[in-house]
């Protein structure tokens, strides 16, 4: 068993985002993290090269652009980014947003 205490894990800056790596030590290839997205912050275009990504909205309202299509992710929403898809996201809302992301190799 492994328990990671949220308050014991330091976040680190990643551009204008804050990342809290929640990946269990037993994971060899998959990763899990909380992403804090301040008002006005964005994640520039990126291609999910070899990995599938699952974003779960925790709070706020984050606008994703995936392959030219726009979609908003709010609390409880789940968005899957397939391997190779080009995507970006932006917080144009009125409150800081938080996402939980799970990244795993495509099968």
Describe the protein's architecture and organization.
It is a single chain. The chain is mainly β. It is 0% helix and 56% strand. It is built from no helices and 10 strands. It has strands at residues 12-14, 17-21, 31-37, 42-47, 51-59, 61-66, 69-74, 78-81, 86-90, 97-105. The strands form 2 sheets. Strands 1-2-3-10-5-8 form a 6-stranded antiparallel sheet, with no helix packed on it. The protein has a 4-stranded antiparallel sheet with strand order 4-9-6-7, with no helix packed on it. A hairpin with a 2-residue loop joins strand 6 and strand 7 (69-74). The protein is globular, with a radius of gyration of 14 Å.
Q: How can the largest sheet be summarized?
A: 6 strands, antiparallel
Please tally the helical runs, counting DSSP H or I stretches of 4 or more residues.
0
Shape label: globular
Proportion in β-strands: over 45%
Instruction: Report, as a whole number of angstroms, the end-to-end distance.
Output: 26 Å
Residues in helices, as a percent range: under 10%
Round the Cα radius of gyration to an integer and report it: 14 Å
Order of helices and strands: EEEEEEEEEE
Poorly predicted residue ranges: none
Q: Please count the beta strands (DSSP E, at least 2 residues each).
A: 10
Oligomer: single chain
């Amino acid at each position: 068993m492994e328990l990671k205490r949220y308050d014991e894990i330091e976040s680190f800056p990643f551009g204008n985002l804050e990342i809290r790596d929640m990946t269990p030590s037993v994971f060899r290839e998959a990763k899990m993290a909380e992403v804090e997205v301040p008002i006005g912050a964005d994640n520039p275009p990126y291609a999910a090269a070899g990995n599938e990504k699952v974003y779960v909205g925790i709070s706020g309202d984050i606008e994703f652009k995936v392959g030219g299509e726009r979609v908003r992710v709010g609390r409880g929403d789940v968005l899957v980014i397939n391997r190779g898809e080009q995507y970006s996201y932006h917080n144009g809302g009125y409150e800081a947003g938080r996402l939980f992301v799970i990244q795993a190799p495509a099968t």
